[in-house]
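Fold it.
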Amino acid sequence: MSVGELVDEMGSGGGFTAKHLAQAAEVMRRMRADTKSVNFLSFPAALMATGCRGVLRALVDSGLFHAIVTTCGTLDHDIARSFAPYHHGSFLLDDRELLKSGVHRLGNVLLPKESYGSLLEARLRPWFQDLYEKGVRDYTSPELLRAVGLRLPASSLLATAARRGVPIFVPGLTDGAFGCQLWLFWQDHKQFKWDPIREEHELSDIIFAAKRSGALMVGGGISKHHTLWWNQFKGGLDYGVFITTASQYDGSLSGARLEEAISWGKLNPKARFATVDGDATVMLPLLAAALLER
Protein backbone atom coordinates (compact mmCIF):
# COMPACT_ATOMS: atom_id res chain seq x y z
CA MET A 1 0.00 0.00 0.00
CA SER A 2 1.04 3.62 -0.39
CA VAL A 3 2.12 5.70 2.59
CA GLY A 4 -1.16 7.59 2.44
CA GLU A 5 -3.10 4.34 2.56
CA LEU A 6 -0.89 3.13 5.41
CA VAL A 7 -1.58 6.25 7.46
CA ASP A 8 -5.31 5.96 6.74
CA GLU A 9 -5.20 2.33 7.89
CA MET A 10 -3.43 3.46 11.06
CA GLY A 11 -6.42 5.72 11.66
CA SER A 12 -8.95 2.96 10.98
CA GLY A 13 -7.08 0.45 13.11
CA GLY A 14 -6.81 2.97 15.90
CA GLY A 15 -4.68 2.89 18.97
CA PHE A 16 -2.18 5.25 20.53
CA THR A 17 0.06 7.43 18.36
CA ALA A 18 -1.01 5.75 15.11
CA LYS A 19 -4.50 7.21 15.53
CA HIS A 20 -3.10 10.67 16.21
CA LEU A 21 -0.87 10.56 13.13
CA ALA A 22 -3.87 9.75 10.94
CA GLN A 23 -5.83 12.58 12.55
CA ALA A 24 -2.93 14.95 11.84
CA ALA A 25 -2.91 13.89 8.18
CA GLU A 26 -6.62 14.63 7.92
CA VAL A 27 -6.18 18.08 9.50
CA MET A 28 -3.38 18.84 7.05
CA ARG A 29 -5.50 17.73 4.10
CA ARG A 30 -8.33 20.00 5.19
CA MET A 31 -5.88 22.85 5.70
CA ARG A 32 -4.51 22.38 2.20
CA ALA A 33 -8.01 22.26 0.68
CA ASP A 34 -9.01 25.53 2.35
CA THR A 35 -7.94 28.16 -0.17
CA LYS A 36 -8.69 30.94 2.33
CA SER A 37 -6.24 29.60 4.90
CA VAL A 38 -2.80 31.19 5.35
CA ASN A 39 -0.53 28.40 6.54
CA PHE A 40 2.61 28.46 8.69
CA LEU A 41 5.40 25.93 9.02
CA SER A 42 7.45 26.14 12.22
CA PHE A 43 10.34 23.95 13.31
CA PRO A 44 13.66 24.11 15.20
CA ALA A 45 17.09 23.86 13.60
CA ALA A 46 18.07 20.30 14.58
CA LEU A 47 15.91 18.75 11.85
CA MET A 48 17.99 20.50 9.20
CA ALA A 49 21.00 18.38 10.20
CA THR A 50 19.03 15.22 9.32
CA GLY A 51 17.32 13.76 6.28
CA CYS A 52 14.23 15.74 7.26
CA ARG A 53 15.87 18.72 5.59
CA GLY A 54 14.64 17.25 2.30
CA VAL A 55 11.16 16.63 3.73
CA LEU A 56 10.86 20.24 4.87
CA ARG A 57 12.06 21.49 1.50
CA ALA A 58 9.50 19.30 -0.29
CA LEU A 59 6.71 20.62 1.92
CA VAL A 60 7.67 24.21 1.14
CA ASP A 61 7.99 23.39 -2.56
CA SER A 62 4.47 21.93 -2.56
CA GLY A 63 2.99 25.40 -2.11
CA LEU A 64 1.09 24.44 1.03
CA PHE A 65 2.82 26.94 3.31
CA HIS A 66 2.82 30.71 3.04
CA ALA A 67 5.31 31.54 5.81
CA ILE A 68 8.05 29.79 7.80
CA VAL A 69 9.03 30.49 11.41
CA THR A 70 12.26 28.86 12.53
CA THR A 71 15.51 29.33 14.44
CA CYS A 72 18.93 30.60 13.43
CA GLY A 73 20.49 27.15 13.32
CA THR A 74 18.21 26.30 10.39
CA LEU A 75 20.15 28.83 8.34
CA ASP A 76 23.48 27.47 9.58
CA HIS A 77 22.73 23.87 8.62
CA ASP A 78 20.99 24.65 5.34
CA ILE A 79 23.89 26.76 4.08
CA ALA A 80 26.60 24.44 5.43
CA ARG A 81 25.03 21.31 3.91
CA SER A 82 24.73 23.06 0.57
CA PHE A 83 28.52 23.01 0.28
CA ALA A 84 29.90 20.32 2.61
CA PRO A 85 28.89 16.95 4.07
CA TYR A 86 27.67 15.97 7.51
CA HIS A 87 28.25 12.37 8.65
CA HIS A 88 26.52 9.51 10.44
CA GLY A 89 27.59 9.07 14.04
CA SER A 90 26.27 7.71 17.31
CA PHE A 91 24.74 9.06 20.51
CA LEU A 92 27.40 7.07 22.38
CA LEU A 93 30.58 8.55 20.91
CA ASP A 94 33.21 10.04 23.21
CA ASP A 95 32.72 13.82 22.96
CA ARG A 96 36.18 14.54 24.39
CA GLU A 97 37.72 12.57 21.54
CA LEU A 98 35.46 14.34 19.04
CA LEU A 99 36.68 17.69 20.36
CA LYS A 100 40.29 16.61 19.78
CA SER A 101 39.37 15.46 16.27
CA GLY A 102 37.67 18.72 15.35
CA VAL A 103 34.19 17.27 15.05
CA HIS A 104 30.91 18.62 16.48
CA ARG A 105 28.20 16.13 17.52
CA LEU A 106 24.49 16.86 17.12
CA GLY A 107 22.81 13.76 18.53
CA ASN A 108 24.02 11.00 16.21
CA VAL A 109 24.99 13.40 13.42
CA LEU A 110 28.61 14.52 13.07
CA LEU A 111 29.66 17.96 11.76
CA PRO A 112 33.34 18.43 10.93
CA LYS A 113 34.43 21.91 11.99
CA GLU A 114 35.49 22.70 8.43
CA SER A 115 31.93 21.93 7.31
CA TYR A 116 30.45 24.47 9.69
CA GLY A 117 31.91 27.64 11.26
CA SER A 118 34.73 28.45 8.86
CA LEU A 119 32.60 27.48 5.87
CA LEU A 120 29.81 29.80 6.93
CA GLU A 121 32.20 32.70 7.46
CA ALA A 122 33.78 32.17 4.04
CA ARG A 123 30.40 32.14 2.31
CA LEU A 124 28.43 34.72 4.27
CA ARG A 125 30.86 37.60 4.56
CA PRO A 126 31.17 38.15 0.76
CA TRP A 127 27.39 37.94 0.43
CA PHE A 128 26.87 40.51 3.17
CA GLN A 129 29.50 42.74 1.56
CA ASP A 130 27.75 42.48 -1.81
CA LEU A 131 24.38 43.38 -0.28
CA TYR A 132 25.93 46.31 1.56
CA GLU A 133 27.54 47.64 -1.63
CA LYS A 134 24.15 47.38 -3.34
CA GLY A 135 22.67 49.71 -0.74
CA VAL A 136 21.10 47.33 1.76
CA ARG A 137 21.19 48.84 5.24
CA ASP A 138 18.44 47.82 7.67
CA TYR A 139 16.74 44.52 6.85
CA THR A 140 14.29 41.94 8.18
CA SER A 141 14.85 38.18 8.26
CA PRO A 142 12.61 37.54 5.23
CA GLU A 143 14.40 40.22 3.19
CA LEU A 144 17.89 39.02 4.08
CA LEU A 145 17.14 35.32 3.76
CA ARG A 146 15.53 35.73 0.37
CA ALA A 147 18.74 37.39 -0.83
CA VAL A 148 20.83 34.58 0.66
CA GLY A 149 18.50 31.91 -0.73
CA LEU A 150 18.97 33.22 -4.26
CA ARG A 151 22.70 32.51 -3.85
CA LEU A 152 22.22 28.88 -2.77
CA PRO A 153 21.76 25.62 -4.72
CA ALA A 154 18.18 24.71 -5.61
CA SER A 155 18.31 21.75 -3.20
CA SER A 156 18.40 24.03 -0.15
CA LEU A 157 15.40 25.11 1.90
CA LEU A 158 16.34 28.80 1.67
CA ALA A 159 16.59 28.61 -2.13
CA THR A 160 13.23 26.84 -2.38
CA ALA A 161 11.54 29.40 -0.13
CA ALA A 162 13.06 32.27 -2.14
CA ARG A 163 11.86 30.76 -5.42
CA ARG A 164 8.41 30.10 -3.98
CA GLY A 165 8.13 33.56 -2.43
CA VAL A 166 7.71 32.11 1.08
CA PRO A 167 9.06 34.50 3.75
CA ILE A 168 11.23 33.01 6.50
CA PHE A 169 10.92 34.63 9.93
CA VAL A 170 13.69 34.02 12.46
CA PRO A 171 12.82 35.83 15.70
CA GLY A 172 16.09 34.62 17.25
CA LEU A 173 18.27 35.67 14.32
CA THR A 174 21.42 36.22 16.39
CA ASP A 175 21.23 32.83 18.16
CA GLY A 176 23.59 30.89 15.92
CA ALA A 177 26.55 31.01 13.56
CA PHE A 178 24.62 33.00 10.94
CA GLY A 179 23.77 35.65 13.51
CA CYS A 180 27.36 35.69 14.76
CA GLN A 181 28.54 36.49 11.24
CA LEU A 182 26.01 39.32 11.07
CA TRP A 183 27.44 40.71 14.30
CA LEU A 184 31.02 40.42 13.04
CA PHE A 185 30.13 42.15 9.77
CA TRP A 186 28.32 44.89 11.73
CA GLN A 187 31.57 45.73 13.53
CA ASP A 188 32.80 47.49 10.38
CA HIS A 189 29.40 48.30 8.83
CA LYS A 190 27.31 49.84 11.57
CA GLN A 191 24.44 50.74 9.22
CA PHE A 192 23.93 47.09 8.22
CA LYS A 193 21.37 46.22 10.89
CA TRP A 194 18.60 43.73 11.54
CA ASP A 195 15.25 45.45 12.19
CA PRO A 196 13.21 43.02 14.35
CA ILE A 197 10.39 45.51 14.97
CA ARG A 198 9.76 46.03 11.25
CA GLU A 199 9.95 42.26 10.88
CA GLU A 200 7.17 41.83 13.42
CA HIS A 201 5.08 44.29 11.43
CA GLU A 202 5.61 42.21 8.29
CA LEU A 203 4.34 39.17 10.19
CA SER A 204 1.37 41.08 11.55
CA ASP A 205 0.40 42.10 8.00
CA ILE A 206 0.19 38.42 7.05
CA ILE A 207 -1.95 37.60 10.08
CA PHE A 208 -4.37 40.51 9.83
CA ALA A 209 -4.99 39.82 6.13
CA ALA A 210 -5.80 36.14 6.75
CA LYS A 211 -9.40 34.97 6.73
CA ARG A 212 -8.32 31.67 8.29
CA SER A 213 -4.95 30.23 9.27
CA GLY A 214 -3.27 26.92 9.91
CA ALA A 215 0.08 25.65 11.12
CA LEU A 216 2.25 22.58 11.18
CA MET A 217 4.45 23.01 14.25
CA VAL A 218 7.34 20.62 14.72
CA GLY A 219 8.88 20.83 18.19
CA GLY A 220 8.57 23.76 20.54
CA GLY A 221 10.62 26.74 21.58
CA ILE A 222 10.58 30.16 19.96
CA SER A 223 9.43 28.96 16.54
CA LYS A 224 6.27 27.36 17.93
CA HIS A 225 5.55 30.23 20.28
CA HIS A 226 5.99 32.93 17.64
CA THR A 227 3.57 31.10 15.35
CA LEU A 228 0.94 30.78 18.07
CA TRP A 229 1.51 34.27 19.46
CA TRP A 230 0.76 36.12 16.27
CA ASN A 231 -2.22 33.96 15.36
CA GLN A 232 -4.02 35.01 18.53
CA PHE A 233 -4.63 38.39 16.90
CA LYS A 234 -6.99 36.84 14.36
CA GLY A 235 -8.85 34.68 16.86
CA GLY A 236 -6.42 31.76 16.85
CA LEU A 237 -5.41 29.07 14.39
CA ASP A 238 -8.21 27.31 12.53
CA TYR A 239 -6.03 24.28 11.76
CA GLY A 240 -3.15 23.01 13.87
CA VAL A 241 -0.81 20.01 13.92
CA PHE A 242 1.90 19.69 16.55
CA ILE A 243 4.64 17.02 16.65
CA THR A 244 6.53 16.71 19.93
CA THR A 245 8.52 14.40 22.18
CA ALA A 246 8.20 16.65 25.25
CA SER A 247 6.07 16.18 28.34
CA GLN A 248 3.38 18.71 29.19
CA TYR A 249 3.83 18.19 32.94
CA ASP A 250 6.84 20.51 33.34
CA GLY A 251 4.82 23.45 32.02
CA SER A 252 7.08 23.92 29.00
CA LEU A 253 5.85 25.28 25.69
CA SER A 254 7.57 22.38 23.95
CA GLY A 255 5.35 19.98 25.86
CA ALA A 256 2.16 22.03 25.92
CA ARG A 257 -0.58 20.33 23.93
CA LEU A 258 -2.53 22.39 21.44
CA GLU A 259 -5.56 22.32 23.72
CA GLU A 260 -3.69 24.62 26.10
CA ALA A 261 -3.43 27.24 23.34
CA ILE A 262 -7.23 27.57 23.33
CA SER A 263 -7.13 29.21 26.76
CA TRP A 264 -4.77 31.86 25.37
CA GLY A 265 -6.82 32.54 22.25
CA LYS A 266 -4.01 31.15 20.10
CA LEU A 267 -6.08 28.22 18.82
CA ASN A 268 -9.69 28.75 17.79
CA PRO A 269 -12.03 26.72 20.06
CA LYS A 270 -13.64 25.33 16.89
CA ALA A 271 -10.31 24.53 15.23
CA ARG A 272 -9.40 21.17 13.76
CA PHE A 273 -6.18 20.06 15.39
CA ALA A 274 -4.03 17.11 16.41
CA THR A 275 -0.98 16.56 18.60
CA VAL A 276 1.35 13.73 17.60
CA ASP A 277 3.77 12.37 20.20
CA GLY A 278 6.92 11.05 18.59
CA ASP A 279 10.27 11.74 16.98
CA ALA A 280 9.80 14.16 14.09
CA THR A 281 12.41 12.33 12.00
CA VAL A 282 9.92 9.43 11.90
CA MET A 283 6.55 11.19 12.10
CA LEU A 284 7.19 14.07 9.71
CA PRO A 285 8.20 11.97 6.67
CA LEU A 286 5.12 9.77 7.13
CA LEU A 287 2.86 12.79 7.48
CA ALA A 288 4.42 14.58 4.52
CA ALA A 289 4.24 11.53 2.26
CA ALA A 290 0.61 10.92 3.15
CA LEU A 291 -0.14 14.54 2.36
CA LEU A 292 1.94 15.05 -0.79
CA GLU A 293 1.04 11.86 -2.62
CA ARG A 294 -2.53 13.16 -2.84
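The two ends are 14 Å apart (CA to CA).
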